[in-house]
Design brief:
The complex is a heterotrimer of chains A (628), B (164) and C (170). Chain A folds into 3 domains: 198 residues, Aldehyde Ferredoxin Oxidoreductase,  A, domain 1, CATH 3.60.9; 163 residues, Aldehyde Ferredoxin Oxidoreductase Protein, subunit A, domain 2; 166 residues, Aldehyde Ferredoxin Oxidoreductase Protein, subunit A, domain 3. In chain A, 41% of the residues lie in helices and 13% in strands. Chain A is built from 25 helices and 18 strands. In chain A, the strands form 4 sheets. Chain A has a 6-stranded mixed sheet. A 6-stranded mixed sheet of chain A has the order 8-7-12-9-10-11. The two termini of chain A are 32 Å apart. In chain B, the strands form 4 sheets. In chain B, strands 1-9 form a two-stranded antiparallel sheet. The mean pLDDT of chain B is 94. Chain C is of the alpha+beta class and 170 residues long. The two termini of chain C are 33 Å apart. The C terminus of chain C is likely disordered. Classes of the chains: A alpha+beta (628), B alpha+beta (164), C alpha+beta (170). Chains in contact: A-B, A-C, B-C. Chains A and C meet through loops of A and helix 5 of C.
């Protein structure tokens, strides 16, 4: 069935929901060697098939679900699915990823990716089993939450050994940051891809696959995988993530004073221990869980089993949960945070943007820019946990203030004349931490091709790279100094190409990028990754070529955004970070300097081979990447 | 030596010592036996019960195995009296009588080979045990498993008396 | 998948009512009602029920995945498919090689005709009449992987109870 010796299924499924047509399009090894998979497939197709300026809810927008060649193999943590479309939240390139079991299952069902276009006249779901594709009526599922949707589908199909990727009421009601949820718990959260799915009236994509994912050279593959696993065993991050999950970062944020608390007005949190990784583990953790083939097991499975919010059983929380629903809104109550998180997953809305939007509304309320009549009669102050839960229930249905909150902070800012308090880049809310004390972090978030994102690049290199390594790799030892600026533009650019590799292969970055050793980033991230790829697919690949693929895909995404009107001005962090110094904590008084940022951005554009004024990749750069 | 099998040993008090549903056992089993990525061709399967309960299930190497007794061709056999029941793929006709009678569903018909497929303890070096990150799969036998349960029970008895 | 199914027999549910056998025979005779059963005509023996110390056992073609009958067939009328063994009566020459190698003896000669007969899962029907007739669901038409999975799940549920998980935990 496949024209590849292994890894790839070799086919992309095209579904048109307007006319119900189904097409299974093969791709060749040339395409595979240039774009690899995951974001490579989605960004290439989005660039080729979308008209610039189109509305994200237009039937002509594509919804793409893309896997990588290593999904479905025993490669460590090869569990990630990429979902992509033109984002209704930003109007630019949108993508998100989710772990779990869905991406491998799509491979077992015989496809590398799905491209959905058009709009169904009635709600439907896709049922894909071993290469067979059916569009089935889904009206009875419309309106259901994520768990109930899964249950109904399992009953209807008569098998609970299936994997469901669905939207909740949030996606159905076109909440601009609605998310896509796989297997009830793996959330592809950001950029509102779930709303695009809802606009197509596609409720779910269900897969079951019993076919093989081939492995071209099993002996070589086993060696590569075993070597890969060995690098993870001694890794300190493996242990930390297993014990506390991503919430381990709570203590770190407090220590450095880099919270974005109270909509980025406060950098430290009083009583932060109540929402630390340790607290969540003690009070709510049932089990550490792992995605497909994962030895890290950073996923949490938690439960509230007593008190007014019980029973709540949910995957999570993540650090980002605590940040968005706890720090930004200043609701320092772990049970409320967990409950709010669960509701976001059940209704299918991105908790990060939800938390950011509510936090922004809280600041506007406290400043008198939003009145009580406008906030559903609620005293919408920071710390009001009841209000948080109230609006999480309203947003998915666009009820009351929920209708405005469902638009995200950028549009909220436009409608209320309060753009200053909308903390986003390109329309995607700033997650992670406050970058005011570290301009390199600000750069990383702001140039990310999907909007503000801390996962598009890997700036933490400057926390552990040795001076001689920095000199050798980035041309200056100053890259090894946390507070230095010189060379950081090059560093961020390199790290973006490098991180993209994981998103092309289908690998989880937590079992791939975490290290305190720069040589390990090269060894695991490039050498072992390319070795595993070659062994699985039978295609020639090197660490350098993989990096080049990452750079190619990144440039393609930049072109997409440029076409949509995102120029140099969109690569800047929010005004607040330049205007207001940090009010408290170890970084008190710090704010971004325009000169520093401009210098850094200049260096970044130069390192990328992009025009300094416009950010447009030069023809030479595009030629060198075979994009021209 | 008692008949060995793969046993699931968890500590429900330790969040890291329970099956994490990573399904690495399924993946490595299928890879070891068939050199492909396909967990459904693994001879161990993680059963998802919901509410965070996941339990790997595989052959129990019964003392009095229904599969072995019902096999019309003798393909299911033991090489040694205390060994693991294994399939001789050359004499297996894929009649699925073993599938029919196995009480725990540990035997299936491999979709590619067309013969019965079950745990064979990887000739004494079980890969699932090696690759399980939570270390909850162990090569065991009934005596060892009973001992483990007795220990756990004894612990809970002590804990109960200490609470008073 | 859909084609890759066979009939599984669960003896613990069988009460020996023989409704399955009756349904099979009526199907073979082309009769949809008892009154329509022709007199004096012997139906195809595609199914047999025997008793052993009081326990019934249902015999039928097992739809083997590596079938000896398909290998033995000299005319090509018996063919190995993913879902079992297909049978083309037009090609059958009645040599009986298949019945010699079938360990279950469930390829049987047709009375008065130079060919064999066996269970073919009544693929024209949505559900085979025997499965439909069985009141206790002792007969299950299922894919072997799903059949095994159901048992694994039941076993996992049982072993979970033994570990002291409360059933009333939501």
């Amino acid at each position: 069935m496949t024209n590849f010796a292994g890894g790839y299924a070799g086919r992309i499924l095209y579904v048109d929901l307007t006319d119900g047509s189904i097409e299974k399009r093969p791709f060749d090894r040339d395409f595979a060697l240039r774009y690899v998979g995951g974001r490579g497939i989605s960004s290439r197709i989005l660039y080729d098939e979308l008209e610039p300026g189109m509305d994200s809810f237009s039937p002509d927008n594509r919804l793409i679900l893309a896997t990588g060649p290593l999904n479905g193999t025993p490669t460590p943590s090869a569990s990630r699915l990429v979902v992509a479309s033109k984002s209704p939240l930003t109007g630019g390139l949108g993508d998100a990823s989710a772990g779990g079991y869905w991406a491998p299952e799509l491979k077992y069902a015989g496809f590398d990716a799905i491209v959905v276009r058009g709009r169904s006249p009635e709600p439907v779901y896709l049922w894909i089993e071993d290469g067979e594709v059916r569009i089935r009526p889904g009206k009875h599922l419309w309106g259901q939450r994520i768990h109930d949707t899964s249950q109904l589908l399992k009953e209807e199909i008569g098998d609970d050994d299936i994997h469901v990727c669905a939207i909740g009421p949030g996606g159905e009601n076109l909440v601009r940051y609605a998310c896509v949820v796989t297997d009830e718990e793996g959330v592809a959260g950001r950029c509102g891809i779930g709303a695009v799915m809802g606009s197509k009236r596609l409720k779910a994509v269900v897969v079951r696959g019993t076919l093989d994912v081939g492995i071209a050279d099993p002996a070589r593959f086993k060696q590569a995988v075993d070597a890969y696993r060995e690098t993870l065993v001694g890794e300190v991050w493996t242990d930390v993530l297993r014990k506390l999950g991503t919430p381990n970062l709570v203590a770190h944020r407090q220590k450095l004073g880099i919270w974005g608390a109270k909509n980025f007005q406060k950098a430290t949190i009083e009583g932060w221990e109540k929402i630390s990784g340790e607290t969540f583990r003690e009070r709510f953790l049932i089990k550490a869980m792992g995605c497909m083939g994962c030895m890290v097991r950073c996923r949490r499975y938690s439960a509230i089993q007593e008190g007014p919010l019980s029973p709540t059983f949910t995957k999570g929380p993540e650090y980002d949960t605590i940040n968005a629903l706890g720090a930004k809104t200043y609701v320092i109550d772990p049970a409320i945070i967990l409950r709010a998180h669960h509701l976001c997953d059940e209704y299918g809305i991105d908790e990060q943007t939800a938390g950011s939007s509510i936090a922004m509304a809280m600041e506007l309320y406290e400043r008198g820019l939003l009145k009580k009549e406008e906030t559903d009669g609620i005293d919408l102050t920071f710390g009001n946990g009841e209000a948080l839960l109230h609006f999480i229930e309203k947003i998915p249905f666009r009820k009351g203030l929920g209708d405005l909150l469902a638009e995200g902070t950028k549009i909220m800012g436009e409608r209320l004349g309060a753009g200053y308090y909308a903390i986003h880049v390109k329309g995607l809310e700033v997650d992670a931490s406050d970058p005011r004390s570290l301009v390199t972090r600000a750069l990383t978030y702001s140039v990310a091709t999907r909007g503000s994102c801390h996962l598009r690049g890997f700036p933490y290199i400057d926390e552990f790279i040795k001076p001689e390594e920095a000199e050798a790799h980035f041309g200056t030892a100053s890259v090894s100094r946390l507070d230095a600026i010189e060379g950081k533009g090059r560093m961020v650019a390199w790290s973006e190409n490098w991180i993209t590799i994981a998103n092309l292969l289908g690998l989880c970055i937590f079992a791939w990028y975490r290290s305190r050793s720069f040589p390990m980033l090269i060894r695991r991230g490039q050498e072992l990754a390319s070795e595993t790829f070659s062994a699985a697919t039978g295609l020639p690949m090197t660490g350098e070529k993989l990096l080049r693929c990452g750079e190619r895909v990144y440039n393609l995404e930049k072109l997409f955004n440029l076409r949509e009107g995102f120029g140099r001005a969109s690569d800047y962090p929010p005004l607040r970070f330049f205007e207001e110094p940090l009010s408290d904590g170890p970084g008190k008084g710090a704010k971004l300097s325009r000169d520093d940022y401009d210098r850094l951005l200049d260096e970044y554009y130069e390192a990328r081979g992009w025009d300094k004024e416009t950010g447009v990749p030069t023809p030479d750069k595009l030629k060198s990447l075979d994009l021209l | 030596m008692a008949k060995q099998r793969i046993g699931y040993f968890e500590d429900s008090q330790d969040p890291e010592a329970m099956c994490s549903r990573c399904r690495m056992c399924e993946l490595i089993c299928a890879f070891h036996h068939h050199q492909v990525g396909n967990p459904r061709r693994g001879r161990i399967r993680v059963i998802v019960l919901g509410r965070g309960e996941d339990i790997p299930v595989t052959c129990l190497n019964c003392e009095d195995p229904p599969c072995l007794k019902i096999c019309p061709t003798g393909a299911l056999h033991r090489l040694q009296p205390e060994g693991m029941v294994t399939v001789n793929p050359d004499s297996c006709i894929g009649c699925a009588m073993c599938v029919n009678v196995c009480p725990v569903g540990a035997v299936t018909i491999d979709p590619v080979e067309g013969t019965a497929s079950k745990c064979d303890l990887c000739q004494g070096d079980p890969q699932c045990v090696l690759y399980c990150p939570a270390k909850v799969l162990r090569l065991t036998d009934t005596e060892h498993q009973a001992h483990f349960r007795r220990k756990g029970y004894a612990r809970s008895l002590i804990a109960a008396t200490q609470d008073r | 998948m859909k084609e890759d199914v066979r009939i599984f027999f669960r003896p613990e549910r069988c009460v020996g009512c023989l409704s399955c056998l009756l349904a099979c025979q009526m199907e073979a005779l082309g009769a949809s009602e008892i009154e329509g059963v022709p007199v004096g005509v012997k139906p195809d023996e595609r199914m047999m029920v025997t008793y052993h110390q009081g326990t019934p056992w249902l015999w039928k073609c097992q739809q083997c995945a590596s079938a000896p009958c398909a290998e033995a067939c000299i005319s090509g009328s018996l063919r190995q498919e993913p879902g079992g063994v297909s049978y083309d009566p037009k090609r059958c020459v009645g040599c009986g090689s298949c019945s010699l190698v079938c360990p279950f003896g469930m390829i049987r000669p047709l009375e008065g005709q130079d060919r064999m007969t066996k269970c073919n899962l009544c693929r024209e029907e949505a559900v085979p009449p025997c499965v439909r007739a069985c009141v206790t669901k002792a007969l299950v038409l299922e894919n072997s992987a799903r059949f095994a999975q159901t048992k694994r799940k039941a076993f996992a549920l049982e072993s979970r109870r033994q570990r002291g998980f409360r059933d009333d935990q939501p």
